[in-house]
């Protein structure tokens, strides 16, 4: 019972630690609350190319934010290069970079004139599958397989002895009970 409680406690602590790691490792250029910032997320498409999603967040309650983005590699889903995007007050905008090669990707971004460069690692290589040949067998070592069809007299004798011992034990037990 105590081991189960310890296991649950470890699992809960591990879950909290994992959630904290994910939360704090999200790459973002973030300013203080009530301002504008950029969140980033890297994914892989079915063709093993990188996809970078930038979320442009404006938490300012009354004025729009100006995001200036200089694409670095890949194509932008909106077509062509993006120079500036205005995000309304208390709103969110998004931009996606597709067909990205593996490696470090740096996207220069400025938010209301403040540099907020986004740097992410793209790792979308297809998994490699190695085909191994059969294991080598040495010619001198014969396989250790049991021989079949050989004499079964020994097994018959042992089995008969066990059955006879069981019958004798049964008869002795009946005599004691009567």
Produce the secondary structure layout.
Layout: H1 2-25, E1 28-29, E2 36-44, E3 50-58, E4 65-69, E5 75-76, E6 84-87, E7 91-100, E8 103-107, E9 109-111, E10 114-115, E11 118-122, H2 153-177
Antiparallel strand pairs: 1-2, 2-3, 3-7, 4-6, 4-9, 5-7, 8-11, 9-10
CATH homologous superfamily caption of the domain at 28-122: Immunoglobulins
Output the strand order for the largest sheet.
1-2-3-7-5
Overall structural class, as computed from helix and strand content, comes to: alpha+beta
SSE string: HEEEEEEEEEEEH
Give the overall average pLDDT.
77
Might you state the CATH topology name of the domain at 28-122? Immunoglobulin-like
Tally of contiguous helical segments: 2
Number of E strands: 11
Rg value:
36 Å
Give the % helix. Answer: 25-40%
Terminal CA distance reads: 48 Å
Biggest β-sheet: count, sense, barrel? 5 strands, antiparallel
CATH class annotation of the domain at 28-122: Mainly Beta
Uncertain stretches:
28-32, 73-79
Question: From the 3D coordinates, which CATH architecture of the domain at 28-122 would you assign?
Answer: Sandwich
- Could you say which overall geometry the principal axes of the C-alpha atoms support? elongated
Relative strand content? 25-35%
Name the descriptors.
Immunoglobulin-like; 11 strands; 4-stranded antiparallel beta sheet; alpha+beta; 5-stranded antiparallel beta sheet; elongated; 178 residues; 28% helix
Provide an overview of this structure.
The chain is of the alpha+beta class and 178 residues long. It has a domain at 28-122: Immunoglobulin-like (Sandwich), CATH 2.60.40.10. The protein has two helices and eleven strands; from the N terminus they run αβββββββββββα. It has helices at 2-25, 153-177; strands spanning 28-29, 36-44, 50-58, 65-69, 75-76, 84-87, 91-100, 103-107, 109-111, 114-115, 118-122. The longest helix has 25 residues, at 153-177. The chain is elongated and about 105 Å long. It starts with a helix and ends with a helix.
């Amino acid at each position: 019972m105590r081991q189960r409680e310890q296991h649950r406690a470890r699992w809960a602590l591990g879950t909290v630690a994992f959630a904290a790691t994910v939360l704090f490792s999200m790459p973002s250029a973030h300013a203080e609350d009530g301002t504008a910032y950029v969140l980033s997320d890297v994914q892989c498409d079915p063709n093993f190319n990188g996809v970078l999603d930038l979320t442009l967040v404006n938490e300012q309650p009354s004025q729009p934010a100006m995001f200036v983005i200089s694409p670095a590699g890949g194509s932008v889903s909106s077509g062509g290069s993006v120079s500036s995007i205005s995000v309304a007050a208390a709103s969110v905008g998004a931009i996606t970079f597709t067909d990205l090669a593996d490696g470090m990707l740096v996207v220069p971004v400025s938010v209301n004139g403040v540099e907020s460069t986004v740097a992410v690692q793209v790792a979308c290589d297809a998994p490699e599958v190695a085909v191994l040949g059969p294991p080598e067998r040495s010619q001198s070592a014969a396989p250790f397989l049991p021989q079949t069809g050989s004499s079964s007299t020994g097994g018959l004798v042992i089995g008969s002895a066990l059955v006879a011992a069981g019958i004798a034990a049964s008869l002795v037990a009946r005599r004691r009970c009567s």
